[in-house]
From TrEMBL:
Record-given protein name: DUF4283 domain-containing protein
Compositionally skewed regions (Polar residues) per UniProt: 258-274, 331-343
Superkingdom, taxonomy of origin: Eukaryota
Pro residues: compositionally biased ranges: 344-353
Residue ranges of every copy of the DUF4283 domain listed in the record: 33-120
UniProt region (Disordered), positions on chain: 252-274, 296-353
Organism of derivation: Anisodus tanguticus
InterPro entries: At4g02000-like, DUF4283
Amino acid sequence: MSLSIPIKPIVYLHGEPTVRFEKKEVEVMIHHQNLTLAVVGKYSHGRPDIGLLRNAIPKQCGLKADVRIGLLCDRHVLIQCTIVEDFDTLMSKQTFEIKEKNKPYLMRTFKWDVSFNPAEESRFAYGWISFPGLSPHYYGESTLFSMAAAVGTPIAVDAATLNKTRPSCARVKVEFDLLKNHPQHVVIQVGEGDGITTELQKIRYDFKPKYCTNYKLQGHDVDGCWNLKPALRPEKTKDSDGRKVVTAMAKAVATNKGKASNPTPTSTLPSQQAPISTTNALIHAPPTNWITVTRKNKKNKNQNPKQLSKPTGTVSPATGIVIPEPRAIGNTAQVSEIDSSPKNDPPPKFSTP
């Protein structure tokens, strides 16, 4: 296309300045800007620097010719191919794993068109369809393209079909609109007049992504949208670090909520003590019999006295009460008593063993 676009006059509609272009002129714009074979790469979970992507995408995606890569917005890059083979390579897969410094970044590819919107994903997708059991005399490229046009725009025929190495099934890559209903069969008629024979050929979709018309995203439809139907969202039991999340515990609590718990029997206690339920917290005796232990360090010097955090004694298995034991002075530690009596009282006397 060597047509040039003239400068358009400004026309005011409802008080707004307006410029009008014809559809043919838009096609000329696309051709002049080398956007006929343009692909959009989307990074939903972060991306490397654009300078690194210019080197990584051609190498890791297996592109053969020069490509121009630029940033459309924070999540989208524009890849302008110069040959059809590179364009087909980028559109042959749903996702590419681009690695930079041993960190993978997932890139999803879409065909660029004039209606591109960063907030929406394209409703057009590339995919393979198969014609199982098709007679081998229909394996010509033009013949298969005629049948594949019932689904969408035919793009290419796979190598096994062209080389006749898999006569059991023919495969064609097509571009189809995800918002349209796609047929499951195509009718093949042969003959003229009253001698027409009819054959019903099955169409098998190797892969066809779903499209959510509410959020304009590929990968799911309205019936499987988690935002519209939160009950469909799978419950997470562990986070990214493998730890249990609170929601799983909350669900267990909600499940057991309202169930009557079995009362714990009361323990049998001596007659001089009042009954205490074993469901109560562990009860310690009043901390009246504390001891202070003085220890020696490596230089055989006394350290600061440290008060124990628990009174010495045995715990009754029935009541959970700590019964203090008589204090004794050992040979390995110097033991002294904390005097809790008034200062006027004489210190208690102990008999040494």
